[in-house]
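FIELD: query
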Amino acid sequence: MLKRLKFLSLIVCMLASLVAVVPLTASAAGTIVSYPLPSIYTTTSQYTVTADSTNIPVIDTSAVFVNYNYCNFSFSGTTTITITASEPINTYNISPKALGITATKSGNTLTFTLSSPTYLIVKINNLKDLVIAADALETNVPASSGTGIYNVKTQYGADSTGATLATTAIQNAINAANAAGGGIVYVPAGVYKSGNLVLKSNVSVYLEGGSVIRGSGNPSDYTTHFHKNSLNKDGTWFIYTETNANNIKIYGRGTIDGNGHYMRNTNNYLNNILVPLQCSNFTVDGITIRDSGGWATIVTRSNNVTFQNTKHFNNNELDYENDAIDIQESQNVLIKHTVAVSEDDTYSFKTWDVATTDIAANWPGSPENQSNVVVDDALAWSRCGAFKVGDGVKQLQDGIVVKNSYVYRCWRALAVGHLYGTPAAQNIIFDNIDVEGFWPRSGVHSRWFDLSAKTGPIKNVVYNNINLRALGEVSIMKGWSDTSTVSGVTLNNVRVGGVAATTLAELKITDTNSYAAAPKFNTLKFEAEGYNLSSGVISYEASTDGGLDVGGGSNGDYIAFKNVDFGSTAKTSIDLKVASANSGGRIEFHLDSPTGTMLGYWTAESTGGWQTWSVKNIPLNAGTAVGTHTVYVTFVKSDSTTVANLTWFQFK
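FIELD: result
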């Protein structure tokens, strides 16, 4: 967990480290940090953006991305965003709409305020969409020199103009930090043209705001790692990890630019930009990853991986098979507070084998099951799948959670596709997701929901608290045989026009067959790992009961679930499935705050172990569980030990 610093200490640190290259503005409202425009990029003529009085460069992506431009800055406190368009503003939209951001337009300007880190897509008239990535201030900026710092420019002579290859200099810095037992490779503002880079154990790479590690675009600068049969092109892992590496971090406000659109279309060669491969404890925080020729970020056969505050930008018009983020055969993965734009899937979860999967031929190790993958607070814009499990399910996929997230536009919003392999895709949760609209590939039918079991089973899929502003065309829920079925589907509080649906027809889920069991509606059963809010030391873990459970809850910790609709008839009891090796303490259920109206509580007792599960039933206080509320599950204990693990609860 990142350590919090006092505000004054933060400003002193940033002034010392960044003032030479980064505009920093402080006011009574807060602090704004704008980053210098790298020399290989230009600003758009369609918009200018300011945060308070600070100019934020809007990067023109016309040559690469076609449909959108973007900008990035960091701030604290509250800031006023002013967008000045190149023409009078007649219409506008600020997404995610679920955030309820209101704006004022006047002539060519649009003004609104932000008070927390937010990723937005703003549409004005028929101009290109504008992605605004407003990050929190950095709290972990290292010094650019000193003990344990390996500066690629000042110590290793890397060319920061992009004129000559910096591959050797950057790799030498990584190697030296690794040989010393660990250190920080510092990449100052500038452009660093590079071939393949290999990340090694105990090395952090800090990308200063305004820095770009950019692919050279020349296949001769790379090792060929795979052949993509569907595109008939060779490809490379641009930046990847040494086999069995451990404890690697990439962070900052800089950019990794694959230059993939150019290399794919000019030199017939693909790249994956970032490939954590057969590694452990891999973290990416705050950077931008842009312009891949193939799947951009592929987390493969790795465990304990975190991506947070990351921006993933790809062409979203021309280049098929350029997924933004693919999680493959990995365990304990958290993707939190991210935005992704791509033509192909934005967030996808796959498992493969070696014998029949072209891209997997050179992956180290053996095929692995995938489990405990959580996506939390993500914004997706795709012409294909926004959030998709599959289509590759050649190994078990168990415990995939997507929650607190937003679909701007796509072809398929929330999908599980079983097209390759026979193992199960199971225990999958889509929770608290807002679907705005669709923008499918030419000739295909848009749909918000897709469960297609063609080669193996799909089991136990929960859709909870889903707001559908659009439904698309006909959605699919189908199996293909007695061994390729769909079962255990639950639709809780899936709203159309603000009203919870009670039939498949209301949701346009009409392409079904007898190999798909009828789903359950509005069961008031909640998987603990699908929580929408939390406080304290709450952790996910694989459960022997299947899927994930929530652990670590000790005194004062809580998890919360939004938009729980009890209906007009008060519920009278709760079933909860718990496991504990301790006795003492309580799990309490409250309305609308951690200490709000008490619904009821369970007095904790040992069940025989932390994975020995038992269903408990507790009564509810009369007349309390009625209407629509946020339900808080609060852990209470007189000491600091864990109360219990929780896998689900259900109101009755």
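FIELD: remark
The CA atoms of residues 499 and 558 lie 28 Å apart.
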